């Protein structure tokens, strides 16, 4: 978990980094290392993301265990030849860049905030308002929950 003093700018940077981690894993796949499973192409993830445990650990820098597991499930992976592969495809338009945020509640162990997310860091294009529940331990933060899960491929309920 990152250590920050929780100013609005630091919270915005924290949300920005957290919202990017799924893409960092997904986009790291080697499109030249392809396997075919049940008619779908899968690309091999690099060694640093070669197992479920490594990917979950990476997500856990910012996200709680429940959200990390949901994010992993939505990568739609397969494990072959001692390596993890992620399904190929287009994720569509996803608003993930925080343009601004408002802290709506704060206790010694929780921060509630609402962020306006956009697809563009320079304008409010395809914006969505997302509420977050963040756990606080000292100066360490961890996102425990966020709403708008079913409108975002990364956070949809897994079957």
From TrEMBL:
It comes from the Bacteria. It holds the Pfam family Endopep_inhib. InterPro entries: Endopep_inhib. This is LytTR family transcriptional regulator. It comes from Paenibacillus pseudetheri.
